[in-house]
Design goal:
CATH superfamily of one domain in chain B: P-loop containing nucleotide triphosphate hydrolases
Order of helices and strands of chain A: HHHHEEHHHHHHH
Largest interface: A-B, 23 and 27 residues
Oligomer: heterodimer
Largest sheet of chain A: 2 strands, antiparallel
Distance between the termini of chain A: 48 Å
Number of helices of chain A: 11
CATH architecture of one domain in chain B: 3-Layer(aba) Sandwich
Chain lengths: 298, 233
Amino acid sequence: MEIRDALDALLQALYSGVLSGSVYGLMAIGLTLIWGSLRMLNLAHGALYIAGAYIAYGVLSALGWPVLVTFALAVGGAAVIGLAIQLVLINPILDNPGRDSASLIATLAASIVVQSAILLLFGGQTKELPPLLEGGFKVGTTLISYQGLVVIGAAVVCLLLMTIFLRVSRRGLAIRAISQNMDAARLMGIPIAPTFVVVMVISAGLAGLAGVLLGSILFFTPSGGFTPMLMAMVVTIFGGLGSVPGTIWAAYIIGLMESFLAVFVGPSWALPGIFLFMIVMLVLRPNGLFGLGEVRRL
Amino acid sequence: MLKVEELEAGYAGSQVLHSISLRVGDGETVVVLGPNGHGKTTLLRAISGLVRPRAGRVEFDGTELTHLPTEQIVAAGVVHIPQGDLPFPEMTVLENLLVGAYRSDAWGARAERLERVFQLFPPLAERQRQLARSLSGGERRMLALGRGLMSTARLLMIDEPSLGLAPLVIEQVYATIHAIKRSGLSILLVDENAEHVAGLADRMYLLEAGVLVREGAAAALLRDQALLAAYLG
């Protein structure tokens, strides 16, 4: 009996760890791409996440379109908001010497605008989205929902596609070149501002995708993007700022660590445990798991 | 082909280049010789748009390049191979070369260009899957040259390719620049060592403290030992 309980607990921890790791990965990869190429911390990332969830909710409740179409619209909508932020707020200050602090303020402002717009349109009550697939099955005492598997599958596919995109496509190579040596990249004929736009659109789309996927598992409110963004930042730092493979590993390690702490030590230990671990790890490896200091790695 | 007229450039608070005028003809190899810190790199950066010129004009085949962004200058066919090591250290040799063919007109022909670069630099073919940061100094310089050749360059601007290399490797690097010259490309090379460029340069300029002080056929200038000693030490 005891072995059985332990196995059940193990399975529960594995399942929810991989599930949250998948969502953290989708969120963190966008932060990493933007950090790696633009050297910018995008504080609007959480707002893009929650915008994805609310766009899906709005389209579903107003038009009643099929869930899959709605989800695709939400990803596209988040990408368009990201595009607007880049074109209106970031591109004009690219050559500004005070770009670092200016971009922090600009993206924070954008996140406040997006969240307030959501609050005005939808109110502050909690909302939820229907799953793409209903139902689930039980293994031991662990309930595995089909929607959970959809989330994991979608995340793995997107992270793989992202990795391939950065390795073989012309645009992907350009993004990595910019992140490693911006002047040399320009001398190869790579235009800087349009490439940043591509980075922002991809990153915003992935944040929106994370939002709709998790919105069908958890309830959400207009400020609900903050915690996922915080976790994504932890993952990004842990993975070594600007390292895509590092970020993917870090997402699953953090997700699993969180769920193992919750299952085996107690739910209230999950966050403090992770931050304690972060502190220890940053003392031992200040550049993160895969970080290479000043060398950039996308 | 390339015509630079009364170019002035510098960085915040200090002017580096004073009224530089030079030209590079079709298929010509022109060398700007000068000691370190006298503006050779700034000259190339000003032509390729990484440093904004304060005055003067840069013209290439009749098109004015002076205030164009770098990517359009590259598109016009002027490709600058910067000084020093490791442009994209965390990318493989192959990926580095492919980035060189980024412009859409070069991207379509990347397979043939890659083959040509590998013919010119066999060590790069052997190491195409390695990260650029694992290459030796000479191989890195070959990679930088090869990456320039992946583009649709008609004028290659090369910044001191011998910097920090061992004598034997320096010979190899200049031999490959000879090969590039024979392929018909125009070259603008900046260097501080007259011996390296003997036999390579068609015409030369001497640069001192941001001013072009002499111009002439390379053979004639290189014979004048007293002149070279006075300017290059």
